[in-house]
Amino acid sequence: MYPCTDIDTSLAPGKLRDKKHREHSSRGAIQAFLGLANSWELTVDQRCVLLGEISKQTYHNWQSGKIGVLSRDQLERISLVKDIDRNLHLLFFDRAAARAWLFASNQSQPFRGRSPLCYALQGSIVDLHAIRDHLKSQIMR
């Protein structure tokens, strides 16, 4: 058995453990997410799932600028969505092709015939990591 006394906090994405950092980052993160969600033409329900299954009321509060301090999970989810978008634009040079990939059926692992968006809408942050990692592997080819 290994004791948990020496916890490696370098595994935390950025400074997401620090409430001051999250407070400082929350507004910009939501604005970035809203822009991407608009460009992807996501429904409110889809947006709520990607943000960690938040309520529609919380989403509408954030959309209207009433943003508190986002959780580490919420900021990490937004970061992953931004990474997915960035990687899409490295693979596809026009926004329409990138969006089409997101919505099209895909036989690759881990999607198994579902669209990457449908895969992401299972709700787990692990699924967002898988999409980001899949895109990164395609870029590295």
Major β-sheet, in short?
none
β-strand percent reads: under 5%
Give the fraction of residues assigned to helices. Answer: 55-70%
* String of helices and strands: HHHHHHH
Number of domains: 1
Please state the CA-atom Rg, rounded to the nearest Å: 16 Å
The shape is globular
Q: What is the total tally of β strands?
A: 0
> Structural class, please?
mainly alpha
Number of helices: 7
Termini gap: 39 Å
Mean pLDDT: 89
Are there runs of 5+ residues with pLDDT below 50, and where?
1-11
Summarize the structure.
The chain has helices spanning about 20-40, 45-50, 55-65, 70-90, 95-105, 115-120, 125-140. It is an all-alpha fold.
How are the elements arranged and paired?
Elements: H1 19-39, H2 44-50, H3 56-63, H4 72-91, H5 95-103, H6 116-120, H7 125-140
Any overview of this molecule?
- The structure is a single chain.
- By secondary structure, the chain is an all-alpha fold.
- The chain has one domain (16-140).
- The protein is 61% helix and 0% strand.
- It has seven helices and no strands.
- It has helices at residues 19-39, 44-50, 56-63, 72-91, 95-103, 116-120, 125-140.
- The longest helix has 21 residues, at 19-39.
- It is globular and about 40 Å long.
- The protein starts with 18 loop residues before the first helix and ends with a helix.
